[in-house]
Write a structure and sequence with these properties.
five-stranded antiparallel sheet, alpha+beta, single chain, Thiol Ester Dehydrase, Chain A, 140 residues, 26% helix
Length: 140
């Protein structure tokens, strides 16, 4: 059963902000283990510097996961029908990521009602790291 109801979502409505925990090296190592992505850019400081970064960088999919957590808190995990993301900037250890969003449009189709969402994940300095769109099912 969808958490959101059609009469409770409107175009332009804000999606509650999600504040992710500060990225640290422990989180990066845990994410590498969970995802199987041990690319040296994420865990090897000298390597990251050699390729032009000031430090290791967080996995892009970790940031996308924060977008998914924002949607889950808003609509419920089973309501997420589609999630697409474009990675815009890297995230470093020490960064705090904030996800904000809004309802772009609401549609009712033969197979149900859906809210089309637009979200961004940003570092504390305002740099957008991820732009995302999602579709969540809403109850009628």
């Amino acid at each position: 059963m969808p958490r959101l109801k059609l009469n409770s979502v409107n175009p332009g409505d804000a999606i509650p902000t999600f504040e992710a925990p500060v990225i640290d090296r422990v989180r990066l190592c845990r994410y590498a283990a969970a995802s199987g992505d041990f690319n040296r850019i994420h865990i090897d400081e000298p390597f990251a510097r050699d390729v032009g970064f000031p430090s290791v960088i967080a996995h892009g999919m970790l940031s996308m996961g924060f977008v998914a957590e924002c949607l889950e808190a808003f609509a419920g995990l089973t309501a997420i029908v589609n999630l697409k993301a474009r990675f815009k900037a890297v995230t470093f250890p020490g960064d705090a990521i904030r996800v904000t969003g809004r309802i772009a449009r609401v549609e009712q189709r033969d197979d149900g009602a859906f809210a089309h969402c637009e979200l961004v994940a940003s570092r504390a300095d305002g740099t957008v790291t991820v732009e995302a769109t999602a579709i969540v099912r809403v109850g009628v």
